Amino acid sequence: MNKREFLETLKEALSEEMPASLVRENVQYYSQYIDGEVEKGCTEKEAVEKLGAPRLIAKTLLEAFETTGQTYGSDGNQTAYQDKYGRQNRSEGDYGTTDGDWASESIKNHIKFSKQAKIHLIIGILIAVCVIVLIVSLISALLPIVLPVLAVLLALSYLQKKL
After folding, report:
1. Are 70 and 80 in contact (CB under 8 A)?
2. Which of 13, 140, 30, 2 is nearest to 96 (CA)?
3. Residue 44 gets which letter from DSSP?
4. Beta carbons within 8 Å of 132's beta carbon, 6+ residues apart
5. Which domain holds residue 110?
6. Does residue 114 surpass a pLDDT of 50?
């Protein structure tokens, strides 16, 4: 897949559920990324392969877009989104003049939520392991005391029945 096919597929997938201005920003971001990789010595095809499937990228971007809960002005611009994050209005050409901050920030937030879930899972597992270790330690500490006491009680009970 070449750059043009990648960007067209990405644009098509994003256009279904994302405002046109954000679609342009994301397409421009990935276009610039591919250009940057080509400047570093990769072929266009290698740069596109590094990114992966454009529909999967679009799915991730759309999920991040949906979780931010953005509201847009009635005139269809993205001023409310930009004001919420302290950004200034940007002029746009064919694909906009932004550097793709929205895409990278959204992905970082999505990944951050995943990391938080993993941290909570790890903490839960550690607590469970600590509780199990504590119980085993208590049993092993009390076992040398409890076993002889039980043996004596059993012996006394047996002797009382015999007499």
Report:
1. yes
2. 30
3. H
4. none
5. 3-118
6. yes
